[in-house]
């Protein structure tokens, strides 16, 4: 049976290091992980799916809870015969990674949380997410993409990075983005879950991230029992694209530690 999700799967399928699974944020697709796929696939299997409603994956209108995204990831990995892996996600992808750990912790050997946060949505946040979902369905993605581009990537970011991010946002199907926004508005509180994570974890954040500031990253890192925190200077919400060399260096050191413990 063909997997439900579209995905990129690079690297040796039977490589000794644990596979690395990377979950993109909103409103992007798997190509946001291109620098990481390129850097790590020569030495390990790297799998980067398009979430439902994004990229080349099917669009399911309505409301998509984080639990459904996590179930999709598990189903894809079952199809690919991947039992144990290191899991990473950025922003919404980080929250999906936390939900994956809540659902199937025994499969996850290391957890990477980039530019994300664990707390539930506030009443005003729920209202704004649902209003934005309505707006995207009515107006499409371009106006939103134009408005938030330089919060996603810093104004001083390389022009090619900004163009890539803007292109991902404008290519996202509005019904998929709206369904994710409505689901994210209802997300659970993952703060207690973090205190019960038994695998090594890495928290990464851009120093100039306005969406998920360094203070949020520090709070998560303090809650996680075995965590490394890495703050990337001169980066905003997408340090993996804005400063890929530094991001990949932190990720390589973390993966080396996870591989050693495995």
TrEMBL record:
Highest taxon above the source species: Bacteria
Annotated source species: Streptomyces flaveus
Listed GO MF terms: hydrolase activity
Pfam families cross-referenced by the UniProt entry: Abhydrolase_6 (PF12697)
Keyword presence, Hydrolase: yes
Keyword terms: Hydrolase
UniProt-recorded name of the protein: Alpha/beta hydrolase
PANTHER family with a match to the protein in the record: MONOACYLGLYCEROL LIPASE
Start and end residues of each AB hydrolase-1 domain: 20-248
Keyword Hydrolase recorded: yes
């Amino acid at each position: 049976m063909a997997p439900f999700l579209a995905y990129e799967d690079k690297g040796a399928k039977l490589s000794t290091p644990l596979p690395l699974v990377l979950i993109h944020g909103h409103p992007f697709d798997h190509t946001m992980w291109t620098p990481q796929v390129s850097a790590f696939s020569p030495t390990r299997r790297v799998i980067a799916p398009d979430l439902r409603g994004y990229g080349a994956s099917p669009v399911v209108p309505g409301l998509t809870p984080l639990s459904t995204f996590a179930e999709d990831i598990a189903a894809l990995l079952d199809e690919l015969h991947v039992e144990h892996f290191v899991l990473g996600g950025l922003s919404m992808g980080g929250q999906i990674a936390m939900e994956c750990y809540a659902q199937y912790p025994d499969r996850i050997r290391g957890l990477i949380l980039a530019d994300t946060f664990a707390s539930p949505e506030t009443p005003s946040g729920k209202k704004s997410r649902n209003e934005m979902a309505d707006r995207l369905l009515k107006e499409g993605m371009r106006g939103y993409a134009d408005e938030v581009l330089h919060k996603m990537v810093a104004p001083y970011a390389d022009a090619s990075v900004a163009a890539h991010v803007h292109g991902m946002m404008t290519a996202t199907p509005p019904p998929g983005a709206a369904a994710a926004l409505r689901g994210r508005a209802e997300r659970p509180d993952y703060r207690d879950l973090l205190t019960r994570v038994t695998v090594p974890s890495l928290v990464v954040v851009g120093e100039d991230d306005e969406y998920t500031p360094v203070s949020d990253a520090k709070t998560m890192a303090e809650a996680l029992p075995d965590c490394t925190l890495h703050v990337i200077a001169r980066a905003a919400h997408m340090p993996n694209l804005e400063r890929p060399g530094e991001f990949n260096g932190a990720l390589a050191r973390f993966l080396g530690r996870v591989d050693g413990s495995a």
